[in-house]
Each structure stands twice: as structure tokens, then as C-alpha cells.
Amino acid sequence: MRFYDAHNHLQDERFAGRQEELLTTAETVGVIGMVVNGACAADWPMVDSLARSRPGLIPAFGWHPWYLQERETGWLEDLESQLDRFPAASVGEIGLDRWILEQPPSIRARYLPDLGERTPASFEEQTQAFVAQWKLAVRLDRAVTVHCLNAWGRLIEIIQALPGPSQGFLLHSYGGSAELVPELTRMGAYFSFPGYFALDRKQRQRDVFRRIPLDRLLVETDAPDQLPPSSLIRFPCHGPEPDRRPLNHPANLPDIYAYLAEWLSISLPDLESQVELNFRRLFGPPLPSQVPPPPSGSLASVLPPVPPHPPSGKAERCG
Ligand SMILES: [Zn+2]
Fold first, then answer.
1. Taking the model in full, what pTM does it have?
2. Cα separations in angstroms, 63 against 107, 146, 148, 221, 256
3. Which of 2, 56, 195, 272 is the most buried (most CB within 10 A)?
4. Count of C-beta atoms within a 10 Å radius of residue 175
């Protein structure tokens, strides 16, 4: 059992200091790698220290479109310094989101309780911040994790016009159409499946995953968000008192793999080994020439070398 969570937010304050316990449980069920995404500068110190505590934990630093209004002068330089301090880090979560801008204030407040009377950054500001972070990732040679809601046309336009990261990039919780998959694949995209897409009403998103090349497929929890259906929640988890909102636990990942394997009609061991290759190709651990050797016995020292990136669009289904 070797499971990789392509996208979560383990640093989230709703976990209320229980990160060590969550990680231990996740390791017990075979989760040996995860990308923990900071969504704004306030997240980065916690993401950084979690990543230093576990070799299988890959940090991502970036500004999510929902939090851009919190940026201060020098935000891009600060992001670069954070990335410089962590050569194995990727850039994320960054992106474009028209959905949040279209919501009435009451709905917005549910997702962005800290927003108060302020308005979120405009789509134009989102675009500028995305382009700046994407260019930074390319210059520093880092993988990128992208969040995109209701903005696929604009995202593709931007990515087509710019050089991309050599490792490729992740479209987390890919909710775009099947028709876009070949072009996105050609541009270097990987696509991750969240347990949330196992909900009955997510049939369209699920169907699209049958059209994703297997060598670009990843799996995610997005914990603490995107709760899967109760049948896939082996580890119930709640936020702090008084409302104790249900949270997604990173140890729910193996059940999401099992669901996806069945949905794609492939064996679970085949899915596990394919996702392991894909995860390491995109996120590392990086080749030994790029960083000092890891402590012996750690994840990075026991995994096999990373095979080269496959030719675009030539993916075959395994199993
Ligand atoms: Zn996320």
C-alpha cells in the first residue's frame, strides 16, 4: 500500500493543532506522500514546518485567488524567498475563480468568513497574480498546482501564451470538460480526482475522469474540504467547538483510490503504481543532484529513481 495525496491543506486551522495525529493515522493506512498547499502567506510557516517534519510531505506555497485581497506590498518577493528556502517545494495553490465572484455576499461569507465588508480581488487581479506566480514557478523550475472554477477559457489562453513548468502542472479537482483534456494534457497537465466527485450529483465530473490519460491521473483528498460521500469516510473528523463542522481526513485517501479504481475498471494495485509514478514525476522528490541527500531511511532515499516525463498525449491505460 503506497498512497499519495496530490492535494490537501493539512495546515488548515480547522484541524486545530491535531496535525500530528492526522499524519500518524494517514501513515497507518499507507499514505506515504502528500502535497500540502498553503493558500496565502499566513499558511506558509505551518506548511514549512510540517514539511520539515516528514520527508514524504511536499510543501506548496502560493496565493489562492480567494485570498489575494490579503496580499501586502512585496508579496511576490516574499513568495520567492519562501520557495528559495525550500528547494523541494512546488507552487500552489494558485488559480482563477469566477465562481466566488458570482456568489451573493451571504454565500461568499460562508466560504470566506474573514472577508468581512471587503470584496475579493477582481478577476483582473486574479489573472495578474496567477500570471506572476506561474512565471515565478517556471523561473525557479517548480511544479504548479492550479485551482480553476468557471474560468477554463481564460486559463487555457494564459497557459498557451506562456512557457510552462518542465515538470508539468496539476489541475486539482479537475472539473472542466472532457473536450479540454487533450489540449490540457498536451500542455503538461495532470488531473486529480477528489473523493467529493463520488457524490451522486457529480456524475459529469466523474465521467470526465474516464477520459483522462492514466499517466496523468492523480488522487486527492483536499482535506479538510471536499467531503466524500459517507460511504468513503473511514475516518470521521470534526472542526472545533461549538459547531464541530465535519472535515475531510487525509486518511480517507485509500478509500478514494478504491472507489476510483472501480470507476475506471482497473485494479487497485495498478492504480496505486500508476499514481505513484505520476506523483513522483510531477512533484518529486527531486533528483539527488538538486538537493542535499536526505537522511537515510527516509521516503526520498528508498523510492526508485523517477522515470522521464512521458511524451504528451501518448498515454495508455494500464491494467
Ligand atoms: Zn485546495
1. 0.89
2. 21, 11, 13, 20, 27
3. 195
4. 19
Q: How many CB atoms lie within 10 A of CB 72?
A: 7
Tell me the CATH number for domain 3-302.
Answer: 3.20.20.140
Q: Which of 59-68, 105-114, 226-235, 268-277 is predicted with the least confidence, judged by mean pLDDT?
A: 105-114
CA distance 233 to 100: 27
DSSP 235: S
Q: Identify whether 93 is preceded by a cis peptide bond (ω within 30 of 0).
A: yes
CA separation for the pair 105, 305 (Å, rounded)? 49
- Give 165 Cα–ligand 1 centroid separation in angstroms: 20
Residue found by looking up cell 506523483 in the block: 279
Beta bridge partners of 3: 31
Cell numbers placing 263: 470507476
Report pLDDT digits (tens) over 7-58: 999 999 999 999 999 999 999 999 999 999 999 999 999 999 999 999 899 9
Every domain of the chain and the residues it spans: 3-302
The Å distance, Cα 73 to ligand 1 centre, comes to 24
Interval between CA 222 and ligand 1 midpoint (Å):
5
CA separation for the pair 122, 124 (Å, rounded): 5
Give the distance (Å) from ligand 1 centre to CA of residue 120.
17
Alpha helices per DSSP H over the chain: 19-28, 44-53, 75-85, 98-102, 105-111, 123-140, 152-161, 181-186, 203-209, 253-264, 268-283, 299-302
Residues 6+ apart with CB under 8 A from 81: none
CA of 296 to the centre of ligand 1 (A): 31
For residue 121, the 8-state DSSP code is P
